[in-house]
Design goal:
With 556 residues, this protein is of the alpha/beta class. Strands 3-2-4-5-7-6 form a six-stranded parallel sheet, sandwiched between helices. The protein has a six-stranded parallel sheet with strand order 15-14-16-17-19-18, sandwiched between helices.
Length: 556
């Protein structure tokens, strides 16, 4: 029989597993894979840094409910992916990273870019493997795809030594596995479903919390049916936004603190009691509350907060079970003092930010910028947010109307995800407007990849909130004449975009924001709107700091 190279086996295996896009930074020894993939007419998004490739691939995963693929060069090329892999691990997103590596036959000889890549990567992966036989490439890629998608999704890593790429084997020696099937959607125990509804039926102050796990399972239809039938008040995590209509009368996200503190029974769907939800602990939550928890990972049930009832299964099918079981255990909360109080608090909070939303001060604040964005964006827009204040304040102001239409760093709190997440969003949804909201600090991490957007003609619009410092809370705790957290003011990121082939807008006054948005989106080009803003701008006074940690960033 004919011979086939390792590079071609990688290409064929990925296509067999349904992969249509790879995110790469070409280099030795993976060049033959990347070139062969492109020569075959498949889509390869070549970026300027491996971290960006890895981050874009995981966003692709989240947006498509599939395994995104990143291919990186050896040594430091692979170590550049580690932050991206860690972000995917924390956020439970499937991801396949294939890293080229030095030759096996020269192991421990100081080969070119020889590093312990598997050992460094394994702690933030579900599964890792080293290819030690060309014939095994299809099997290992197949296993990797299954591992990435099964149970709680997550990243996997395949180490691909140079000779496994350039070498050949007889096709007769190659075992071709069946492509990885759609992962199972496990049902919860029907008896526990009934118990869960009985607990919820007894609640006087119920609350539904929706996380990005529900978005991953595409559970939006089942969620809406459950909310409509039960009239349970709900709020979402930042990436849970859009899973339910923002204008829904049961949406109490604007009264988040009051809802969390007051709830006597919580239904948790696809979210975790980690730092994003303050570990479920007082003073952000009641000292005692009943918890009904839905999670695909059994070990997550009862973490940090004991679960009254734990439903282990896929959010979409478990919610369908609960909707069906409502015939036997009917629940309808309707109007109550609990709901009335939450709606009143929502209105009060909305009123409290109105002056900042409508301020015409020449020193532009976050709320004024975001108000113009909110009023301009169509409902099908995908919103990517990156940077502490930008990410946090934007979730208060800019609504999201569709599931999986808001992306941010998530649990890992990883700064720099904005540019690659926006690139993947536009690749997956070429017909939808994509806007990326970034602080100038956050933009600096992967900012050069706006050139990738320009090169691939991706009409993403970046709005850079330029306050010339890392962040207000850091700045306020540095007593130095020369503040190390200050950046050069009034940098021209818009000119940078123009030089790279895109469209630039420079904004210094609030009246300039809306026209700049209109010109950027109508340009059809990758665009940067560079907004010079008040260095001291922040969010409205909060009862609790955004990070629930004792000390400077938390409550005392």
């Amino acid at each position: 029989m004919a011979e086939i190279s390792g590079a071609q086996l990688v290409i064929d295996s990925l296509r067999r597993e349904g992969v249509d896009t790879i995110y790469v930074l070409p280099g030795d020894p993976v060049g033959d894979i990347v070139n062969g993939w492109a020569d075959a007419g498949h889509r390869a998004i070549a970026v300027r840094h491996e971290q960006a490739a890895c981050m874009a691939a995981q966003a692709h995963s989240y947006l498509t409910r599939s395994v995104g693929v990143c291919i990186a060069a050896s040594g430091v090329g692979q170590t550049n992916t580690l932050t991206g892999i860690a972000n995917a691990y924390a956020n439970c997103w499937p991801l396949l990273v294939i890293g080229g590596s030095s030759e096996l036959r020269r192991s421990n000889m100081g080969d070119f870019q020889e590093l312990p890549q598997v050992a460094m990567t394994a702690p933030v992966c579900k599964w890792t493997a080293t290819v030690d036989s060309i014939a095994r490439i299809p099997t290992l890629i197949n296993i990797a795809m299954k591992q990435a998608m099964s149970g709680r999704p997550g990243p996997v890593y395949i180490d691909l030594p140079a000779e496994m790429i350039s070498g050949v084997d007889d096709e007769a020696n190659i075992i071709i596995p069946q492509p990885a099937p759609e992962p199972a959607r496990p049902l919860a125990d029907p008896n526990e479903v009934v118990k869960a509804l009985e607990v919820l039926a007894e609640a006087e102050r119920p609350l539904l919390i929706v996380g990005k796990g529900a978005a991953w399972s595409w559970a939006e239809n089942e969620l809406l049916e459950f909310v409509d039938k039960t009239q349970i008040p709900f709020l979402t995590s930042p990436m849970g936004m859009g899973m339910l209509p923002p204008e829904h009368p049961m949406n109490v996200s604007a009264a988040r603190t009051q809802a969390l503190q007051g709830a006597d029974t919580i239904l948790m769907v696809g979210a975790r009691f980690n730092w994003l939800f303050h570990f479920g602990q007082p003073p952000r939550f009641a000292a005692e509350f009943k918890l009904v928890q839905i999670d695909i990972e059994g070990t997550e049930i009862g973490t940090n907060v004991p679960a009254t009832v734990g439903l282990v299964g896929d959010a979409k099918v478990v919610l369908a079970q609960m909707v069906s079981a409502l015939d036997d255990v009917p629940i309808s909360y309707g109007e109550s003092s609990w709901l009335t109080g939450l709606k009143a608090k929502s209105a009060e909070n909305a009123e409290s930010i109105e002056p900042m939303l409508n301020s015409d001060a020449s020193d532009i604040g976050y709320y004024r910028i975001l108000k113009e964005i909110r009023d301009y964006l169509p409902k099908d827009a995908i919103v990517v947010a990156d940077g502490a204040s930008t990410m946090d304040i934007s979730r208060q102001v800019v609504p999201v109307w569709n599931p999986r239409h808001r992306l941010d760093a998530g649990v890992a709190g990883c700064v720099g995800t904005g540019v690659p997440f926006a690139i993947a969003s536009q690749v997956v949804h070429p017909d939808k407007p994509v806007i990326c909201l970034q602080g100038d600090w956050a933009f600096g991490f992967n900012g050069m990849d706006i050139e990738t957007a320009a090169r691939f003609k991706l009409p993403i619009v970046w709005v850079i909130f330029q306050n010339a410092n890392v962040d207000k809370w850091v700045r306020s705790h540095v007593d130095k004449v020369e503040d190390p957290n200050d950046f050069t003011p009034s940098l021209r990121f818009d000119v940078m975009m123009e030089a790279l082939g895109g469209h630039g807008e420079f904004v210094e006054g609030p009246e300039q924001i809306r026209p700049a948005l209109e010109r950027a989106f109508s340009s059809g080009k990758a665009s940067v709107i560079n907004v010079i803003m008040d260095p001291g701008a922040g969010r409205r006074q909060q009862q609790f700091a955004w990070l629930a940690r004792e000390g400077k960033m938390g409550y005392s």
